[in-house]
Design brief:
Layout: H1 2-17, E1 22-23, E2 29-30, H2 33-69, H3 74-81, H4 85-111, H5 117-146
Antiparallel strand pairs: 1-2
Helix pairs in contact: 1-2, 4-5
Length: 147
């Protein structure tokens, strides 16, 4: 919750600090930074997530090779370092849903041509729907595993 509050605060500072905002015909004031900041944060998140995944795989490979050098049984090595296939599938499905929600949100922004706060609302709504779909998927899968 704290992360969301900080992100919202950072996004709102661009609107408050900007002195040269302009009016959209018949709409609220809108600044370019209002779209630039979330896009920058998204690009930063995707980039750092990619770097962390690469580092994780490199460290896992090094650990696996050190275990093999110490002549540990191969069963133990596989058991300790084998990624859970369900987690990989969940991460892949979550990424698919989030990117699909982002794409649908950007498409709706394109269709509602004059950019404004409603465009950000559409984008946030589409992303929220994609996270809701992922949550419902996990809930259904967990329910089916317990039965």
């Amino acid at each position: 919750m704290k992360k969301y509050l900080i992100i919202l605060l950072l996004m709102s500072t661009a609107l408050v600090a900007s002195a040269d905002d302009y009016m959209i015909k018949g709409g609220p004031t809108f600044t370019r930074e209002l779209l630039d900041i979330p896009a920058s944060l998204l690009a930063f998140y995707i980039g750092t997530n990619f770097i962390l995944q690469v580092i994780k795989r490199i460290i896992s490979h090094r650990l696996r090779s050190k275990m093999a050098d110490k002549n540990l049984p191969e069963d133990i090595i596989k058991q300790l370092l084998q990624p859970d296939e369900e987690d990989l599938a969940d991460n892949t499905f979550r990424s698919f849903l989030v990117l699909t929600g982002l794409g649908v949100g950007l498409l709706v922004m394109y269709w509602t041509a004059p950019l404004g706060l409603h465009s950000l609302a559409w984008l946030a709504f589409c992303l929220a729907l994609s996270f809701l779909a992922h949550f419902l998927y996990l809930k259904r899968r967990q329910k089916s595993l317990t039965n």
